[in-house]
Amino acid sequence: MPIVPLRPPRTTLCSLMIATMVLNGCAWLAPPPGITGTVAWRNLPAWDQDRHAESWPALLRSCEKLARQERSWEQICSAAKDLSDPDDAQVREFFENWFTPHKVRGAGWRSQGLITGYYEPLLRGRFKPSKQFRYPIYARPKDLLIVDLAELFPELKDKRVRGKLIGNRVVPYYNRQQIDTEQDLLAGQELLWVDDPAALFFLHIQGSGRVALPDGRVVAVGYADQNGHPYRSIGRELIAMGELASADVDMFSIRDWLRNHSHRAEELFHRNPSYVFFALRPTRPEGPVGSLNVPLTAQRSLAVDRRVIPLGVPVWLDTTRPGTDSEPYRRLVLAQDTGGAIKGPVRADLFWGRGVTAERMAGLMKQPGRLFVLLPKKRR
Questions:
Q1: Could you say which of 36, 154, 219, 296 has the lowest number of CB atoms within 10 Å?
Q2: Phi, psi of 174 (to 5 degrees)
Q3: How does residue 286 score in pLDDT terms, banded at 50, 70 and 90?
Q4: Under a CB-based contact definition with an 8 Å cutoff, are residues 305 and 345 in contact?
Q5: pTM tops 0.90, yes or no
Q6: Sign of the torsion angle spanned by Cα atoms 338, 42, 99, 107
Q7: What is the arithmetic mean of pLDDT over 312-326?
């Protein structure tokens, strides 16, 4: 008589399946956030209405870095070099031929997130301190250490810890309050001195800027490093303090609050322990250099979370114009920068350039939006 293996009843199998789903947090119902399945070009909102040729210089700048890293990008960039001054239709056809769109989703499988803006501000300053110019822009401190955890733990790729050496121990680096209030911590490492502490604080948020000198010259500064402390939004702090309503918070309302509460400004600044250090950079017509180490292009460069979206790739941005509730703002941009506040899948910061209009648009921008990442097609 053959031996028949015992089978658990169907109810037991179902119970096991349900138990497994519960233990796994119902992962099958909520896929992990990030870049997801493909999207047809015709389903990209207003894809055929953009002035695609305006994105071409930004793509060529991405090629400066990516062509040396991946075989697929080497082919793409080689083909791009063969196109001389392409028009909108040619650029659109190029992207459709070489890339495939993918939707980006956040936690809970949500496709909508927050899109903000940034720009290149202009400050007033000088190379020597005075009674008027007494707020320093610091260079990267010589005692700032970076510990790359990936060397010890490969699973922690892109994880770095910043600190300073005290004896034989690495301890956290100075926070904003310590740098601002304890004398001589960074003495001798000043690049420039400016006249407005609020403008200096916003320079830290923007990550780069220009400084007008008394003799008429303008010098440029760019991000060099950061102290390793987490970024905290002072806009959110003002909401938590009951000083501003969430719907009213933008760069201009924060400036107004600082102007009207100057005696509390330093207290508010210190709620953000993050501190940015700068380096002098060449003053040139193109934009500041982003995290990809290429110049940014106004309205065509995007800051993203590089843990989700690879730097250098094209992104279709679907959002609304700042200062409006529903006017569409859709365009092809390149992921060429990062930012301390840009964390998570559907979270991005659009670079608006420099000047009054750029400042206004960046200062107002806090729009709902969606992101579609264009990844190279797999080719034989």
A1: 154
A2: -55, 140
A3: confident
A4: yes
A5: no
A6: positive
A7: 94
